[in-house]
Amino acid sequence: MTRLYPLLFVVLWSTGFIGAKYGLPYAEPLSFLCARYGLVILLMGLFAVATRAPWPREPRQWLHIGVSGVLVHAIYLGGVFTAIRHGLPAGITALVVGLQPLLTALGAGALLGEKVLPRQWAGLALGFGGVGLVVAHKVAAAAGTPELAAMLLPAIVALLGITAGTLYQKRFCPAFDLRTGSVIQFLPTLALSLLVASQTETMHIDWSAQFVFALLWLVLVLSVGAISLLNLLIRSGSAVNVASLFYLTPPTTALIAWAAFGETLTGLALAGMGLTVFGVWLARK
User: Fold this and answer.
1) Are 186 and 69 a contacting pair, CB within 8 Å?
2) What range defines the domain where residue 121 resides?
3) Distance between CA 195 and CA 68 in Å, rounded?
4) How far apart are CA 8 and CA 248, in angstroms?
5) pLDDT of residue 29
6) Least confident interval from 30-44, 110-124, 127-141, 238-252
């Protein structure tokens, strides 16, 4: 069963665009995320209490788990949602965040003492090239946007957040109870997001049926399902192996968008999907 975790994680993580696509028209990005974080804390907190899940005994463990949560959730998700809300095309967002496995590989040696083999470097390079082919037509369509440079900033912040978060969690808190750990990760995430949202947004939410669907999808499928799988993968695998899975998100998202929303799949994108899968296989082999 555990062998299916990487595949299941990729599929669940790739559906995140559904929540963003349906929810962002009804709420500003950080306000949307604050509602998401609050509901996750409520659900996982009740679940932890009901199942008598163990809480960390040392303050240092609380600190490390909380910091990893801020990096992976507040910084990464806040950057991605802000970039999408401000008009950055999903293809360019995917390409920027797609640099994460390469940056993680660079940091894994220095910070974690992991040895990245030449075969893995080749796989990571091929994976990034494949992602580029998958989103090439979307990148080309948006290349002439005057505000592109300004819209890139939140995506770059998101890239740094998910990279630092993966390395930090692997280094300082690779193993913790998923029930109580989720609460500890999302508490400082919610606090920071609320602080920034209160200064930069109106925090108005239109509680339409479409928004509620998007919110529940992101809470149950992404924040509970995919994040729990990500924590398990970080616990059991190397940082490079885990990071390489993020290359599979843009191709899987493109397939879902083609099946669910009728978006076009070009021959170049299909070739990129094959190259990405081969690159990830090589990096994880």
Assistant:
1) yes
2) 2-284
3) 18
4) 11
5) 94
6) 127-141
Q: Does the pLDDT value for residue 89 go beyond 80?
A: no
Return d(Cα 261, Cα 10) in angstroms, integer.
Answer: 19
Q: How far apart are CA 183 and CA 55, in angstroms?
A: 10
3-18 average pLDDT score: 87
Residue 278 amino acid letter: F
String of b and e for 145-171 (b: at least 16 CB within 10 Å)? eeeeeebbebbebbbbbbbbbbbbbbb
Q: Rounded distance, CA 39 to CA 42, Å? A: 5
Backbone region of residue 113 per phi and psi (left: phi > 0; alpha: psi in -120 to 50; beta: other values): left
| d(C-alpha 133, C-alpha 128), whole Å | 9
Residue type, 15: T
pTM here? 0.89
Transcribe 2-62 into DSSP letters.
GGGHHHHHHHHHHTHHHHHHHHGGGB-HHHHHHHHHHHHHHHHHHHHHHTTPPPPSSHHHH
Contact 114, 108 (CB under 8 A): yes
Q: Quote the number of domains for the chain.
A: 1
Cα dihedral 189, 206, 18, 40 in deg (nearest 10): 30
Residue given tokens 């994976």 in the structure block: 127
- What single string gives the DSSP state of each residue in 193-245? HHHHHHHH----B---HHHHHHHHHIIIIIIIIIHHHHHHHHHHS-HHHHHHG
Q: How many CA atoms lie within 13 A of 35 on its CB side?
A: 22
More confident residue, 241 or 265: 241
